[in-house]
Amino acid sequence: MRFYDYGLAPSPRKVRLFIAEKGLDIPAVEVDLRRRAQQAPEFLAKNPGATVPVLELDDGTCLTESLAICHYLEQLHPDPNLMGRDAKEQALVLMWTDIQTFEGYLGLQEALRNGHEAFKGRALGGPVSYEQIPALAERGKRRAEIYFNKLETRLGESEFIASDRYTYADIVGYVYIGFAARALGEEKRVRAALERLFREAIALYTRPDNPRGCMVVSAAANCSRDNAEIGLWLTEHRRQQTNALVARLKRAVVDGELGQETNAEALGDCYATLLHGLSIQARDGVSRRRLLQTIPLALSLLTSRPKS
Fold it and tell me: Which tens digits make up the pLDDT trace of 19-46?
């Protein structure tokens, strides 16, 4: 078998994590989507849809959808079970996979591909060019917001997304949370992007109709040894969020928004710590008004490029 991957894309990442959970060793081939490698004739011969992931079997059959690939691998390697042990659990895993894909991922895709200049003429993936529709970017953001509210509620009810244990649905949720971090790039100016990030986080943490705070943060503080697996999941999510902040700040330095003396890594760590602390403060009952007062102080840490 051979796995055709692209490190920055969310769909192949689900398969990559699934393969890792199974402890499998499948040779991988990186398909550089930024360089349009998916449009090369040799790749189109494997997947005319010009997308990743692709799992090429020993007999030449090519599986092209992440759910289908993971289902196939589950049949070959049933332990550890990730797709459901019985009919009910399998149905719940598929149900939550569909909910997250149709309500969350597709909204995020709408927002990114219709709102980012890198996707001009490529508002939909695949071999056919489609122009962007700005109104869909705004709709996508709203769809994603509703999805993450639903996910937050679910994680307030259950330690895992689909069942009482770790399954493929948790892999899907983890990947989509990470994909949402790219929304940091939606604002053209880093100060506006960070202010929006903090305001939206505080609004989510202090919603009156949900448990206060962020379950991704607060659950991590309460993971027992028996739940080490979910603890690792949460740790990786926090690490990914921090990396996204650092990457956005480094880009601001390169673009000249921030001074060359800016320590993007230290500043990213500081902002990630603030996000986690805001969640804990909200959980402990600190008001939205007080939390919002931290934003100007946080933004004052940004150092503008010296004027010539």
Answer: 999 999 999 999 998 888 999 999 999 9
Tokens coding 199? 């305001």
Answer CATH for 2-76 from 3.40.640.10, 3.40.30.10, 1.20.1080.10, 3.30.930.30: 3.40.30.10
Enter the tokens of residue 81.
């079970």
* Cα–Cα nearest to 139, from 158, 122, 123, 117: 123
Q: Are 151 and 143 in contact (CB under 8 A)?
A: no
Under 8 Å between Cβ of 7 and 30: yes
242 with 236: CB under 8 angstroms?
Answer: no
Closest-CA residue to 257 (of 180, 185, 182): 185
Q: What does residue 2 show for φ and ψ, rounded to 5 degrees?
A: -145, 135
User: Which of 193, 177, 176, 297 has its CA nearest to residue 248?
Assistant: 193
Distance CA 212, CA 210 (A): 6
The region that residue 65 occupies, defined by phi over 0 for left and psi between -120 and 50 for alpha, beta otherwise, is: beta
Element (H, E) at 186: none
**Closest C-alpha among 264, 244, 243 to residue 255:** 264
- pTM of the model as a whole: 0.62
CA dist., res. 161 & res. 230, Å (int): 11
Question: Would you kindly state where each structural domain of the chain is located, as residue ranges?
Answer: 2-76, 84-186, 188-301
Task: Dump pLDDT digits (tens) for 72-111.
Answer: 999 999 999 999 999 999 999 999 999 999 999 888 888 8
In terms of DSSP bridges, do strands 28-30 and 2-5 run parallel, antiparallel, or are they unpaired? parallel
Same fold yes or no, 2-76 and 188-301 = no
